[in-house]
Structure prediction request, 464 residues.
Amino acid sequence: MTGTTSLTETELRYQLPEIITAALPGEKAAAILARRSEAIPPSLTCVYPVAIAKAEGAIIEDVDGNRFLDWVGGVGVLNIGHRHPKVVEAVKKQENDYFHAMINILTSEKYIALAEKMNEIVPVKGFKKRTFFANSGAEAIENGVKVARAYTKRPNVIVFSGAFHGRTLLTTHMTAKKANSVGLGPFPDGIFRVDYPNLYRKPAYYTDEEAVAYYIERIKRAFDELTPASQVAAIVFEPVQGEGGFIPAPIEWVKAVRQICDENGIMMMTDEVQTGFGRTGKLFASSYYEEAGCAPDILCTAKSIAGGFPLSAIVARDEIVKGIGGGLIGGTFGGNSVSCAAALATIQVIEDENLCERSLELGAAYTARVEDWQQQYKEIGDVRGLGGMIGVEFIKDRLTKEPAPELVNALIQHCVQNGLIIENAGTYGNVVRFLAPLVMTDDQLEAGLAIFENAIDALCTKLA
Prediction:
């Protein structure tokens, strides 16, 4: 393509993807990527030839002037898009007053205001709620487990196949994929794993209803084979598995988990690090559970909470967190004042711009298009998700459902070379995840779908 001048920031959020360099990475990006390879650990892998210079909404511009449509959003961090003006304004205003006040030393009104707002909007079981903050999703999960253990006076936690909960020592152990933990042990004990309800890969010849019953029975069997129910503090799961492949938990399964927890004095804890803040069509996926009478006891969330600033939250009803001992939770930077200001603005943007509704619109449009492709290309095995959180699973054979990770890797490279950034997921790396900012325009959605379709047409096999 011919070169163009760099766009101003005020125009960028409304533009379409465009590659202006002869190849990717361009000259300036290549120089930065070379510095990267020398300066940081190689385990921090990156397959995208992009060095970001600026971003707004769903559009990234690199240092060479190429524009990319971002369908990854910092892996779910940017539901309201890059540099939303209202968040920028709130951050600047807070920075003019002060940056940080550790909650154990000083009381920041922003921390209190955000806790009050979270207590108002987060769907956990119970009337009165309390919230405290940490820095990352993994920290939130660690603190949620602490709270559950302290309240129940029990040591053990049940997690699931396909789960991803973080990269700290505890959350790495809670995470299913053991490639993430090679050489990092020994790990904390008390973590037990059972099967997550993946209906696309359910036992052969089962109906969905039979499969749900099977997966419920697996939890009950765990009390005989892995840990007595009387020793379980919490059952922890993602309402839609993120790294596991964008697999939504069936509502009948969730109802059964809620009943199991109630019958055995176990905390039901939802990991909404990736599903929170409008991604699934409601502020939280657990809002669907609340409507169905099976809200969690503890909810942990992060990623899109603060529009790109580091922050996470742990929310539970009053009786669960009120009695936890002094000094057992919290941390130096948890609830940083600038991050809290950004989070308050982020929630306001989601409400004012009806981004939960927009999530449903984007998810429906994306799903409809992919389901049409599914009728044309044999490698598209499954399309699933909740709201705007959609996964597309690619396979080699529809009968065996053999995963096709090599194809997904090729799709990623084909798309980025044409201005669309997508990412894989799934136990086998064969799922393309849709995590586009919810502020993406209709024109940008159509441009992205065209690039994705061209990649599929170039790399997949048409059905007869």
The chain has 15 helices and 17 strands.
